[in-house]
Amino acid sequence: MLEIFQIIFYDLVILFCQSIIHTFFRDIKVRGSFNIPSKGPIIFVIGPHHNQFLDGAIVISKVKQFTNRRISFLIADKSYKRRFIGFMARLTSAIPVQRAQDMLKNANGRIKLKEGTKDIIIGHNTYFTKDCEVKGLIGLPRSKGNFQILSIESDTELKIKPVEKDDQIEVLTKGTAYKIAPHVDNDKLFSNVFEFLNSGKVLGMFPEGGSHDRTDLLPLKPGVAIMALGAMASNDNSPPDDVINVIPVGMNYFHPHRFRSRAVVEFGEPIKITKELGKKYEENKRLEVQKLMDYITLSLKQVCVTCDDYDTLIVLQAARRLFTNESREKIPLPLVVEMNRRFIKGYQLNKDKPDIIDLKESVMEYQKKLMMLGLHDYQVNIIDDANFFKNLQEFSWRLFRTVLFFCLSLPGTILFSPVFIISSRISKEKQAEALANSTVKIKAKDVLGTWKVLVALVIAPCLYIFYSVLGTLYLRSTIIGTFPTWIIFIFCYFWSVLTTYASLRIGESGMDYYKSLIPLFYSLSKKKARKQIGELKQMRLELSDKVTQFCNNYGPDIFQDYEEFYDKYNNAEDDDGELSLKDVQIFDDSESSEPEHSDYDHNEAEETKQDVRLLSEKINKAYKTRMKLD
What we know:
This protein is of the alpha/beta class. It is built from 21 helices and 15 strands. The chain folds into four domains: 2-99 and 186-301, Glycerol-3-phosphate (1)-acyltransferase (3-Layer(aba) Sandwich); 100-181, Elongation Factor Tu (Ef-tu), domain 3, CATH 2.40.30; 310-381 and 539-627, no CATH class; 388-524, no CATH class. It has helices at residues 2-24, 52-67, 77-80, 83-91, 128-131, 166-174, 187-198, 223-234, 275-283, 285-301, 310-322, 333-350, 354-373, 377-380, 388-436, 448-477, 485-524, 527-558, 562-570, 602-607, 612-627, and strands at residues 25-31, 42-47, 71-76, 95-97, 105-106, 110-113, 120-124, 137-139, 146-154, 157-160, 179-181, 202-205, 243-253, 261-267, 271-274. The strands form two sheets. Strands 1, 2, 3, 4, 12, 13, 14 and 15 form an eight-stranded mixed β-sheet that branches. Strands 5-11-8-9-10-7-6 form a seven-stranded antiparallel β-sheet. This is Glycerol-3-phosphate O-acyltransferase 1.
């Protein structure tokens, strides 16, 4: 009976999550859902963790939608204890994880590095033997970094893992206040997870350890490998052919923190953890964990878009749009994500070559000119200055629609404006707070979307209740006073909700028409402006040829399915269907796609080039062979 209630509550949470993501996001596509087994234990390894709690809401909803399976997430104990998040986590059977960094507290005295060392801490007025623990943490103020304690020599001296970053060395050389955290023993957690997986359930986790807004993955924590291998090693009752599937999940956002943005969720091919690998883990835990982590990192990078830095990512996204002379908006989102990934791959392998450096600078210059004119790339080719009267007619019609949709959306916008204002202000405050407490975030944009939703979930119902009370009082005293008060109140409440939702959708269409006015305006403007547009068109044409040449020069050596994929990209039409990995392959045979400590046979891979699917199977077989090595 308890299990039935848990399922009911879980599904109610799913409905709640679906309503949130459907409102916050304009479009979410899914790739590779066929990779999710219909039964048996699964660990979903999700990254990059760019949207704090919204990442989990999306994955939990899409897995339930496509496979009817229910995920239980690992969640930081700090978040588990929060009122709303903790309540939702308990309803979905989330498993809390204690993290030492969440338990940091101020300690007595001051510390500094011993002169000439990077791993010996000297204290003044400190009590290391009393306050600190071996394997615990010693941390710098203002979230400058934490270091694991290796040994405690006395009350005024201890040894830590070597300090590498210059700013941390500078702080510790001058002397500073510090924080401490105890050693966290996760043996009980691992035992619970082993039991959970061996009962055939589904676990979700973010192996980066926390959310961030970097363009690349943070180093993955080894917990996922310990859980997968340890669970298989601990289950003596399972048949020899039983496996635990570790499935990488790529979260690919276009603007993760913006309202009504878009996303592609991609499920990669399962990594199968067998009984044999479990036995190898018992023989040499450190080696087997490292092997599996290498492969998980590779697999996760194959389903998400990662880049060295933000500026390069923006340039490569612009280059992707320039690839074809025909500028189009309507390309399926999964194809856009895959194209971005391939451009990044090609650039990273050839970024030091003179022609690539020159191409990057040219694209950056093109982007600057677009920004100066307030245009998007897709608008350049649709500007037509040849037919003034036709353009004037189209401009007038679109301007009329823009004004009409703006007026229709105005009531709901005014009603909902307090929510927008308050959520924006609070989310920015939380962004500043998160940035101050983190050493990995760049601008802490990863918390914006979550806090906008959390604030709206509190403010919006209060606002609707306020409007409903006013509406009820007015209607009772004027028009329909004979109806029961509670019926009038419910009517007013749902009317408020529908008004704001309708305004949202209408305003969205109005914004699309507004954006289309800019190129039409330039087609009607003065001769000088039209001349600038002509120069921009010519620049785009030349850049498009350069980008195409870049693809033709370097693409076939990197991707086996180069011609097939780019033909698919150039002829694709937008649709609402799921695009699977069978439709668009993501594997390549370049050396840089293999783990750093790989034992793959490069020569054999080069000699046996077949289609991409066979290569993918070869990688999996090579991994299994490698995991069997002593």
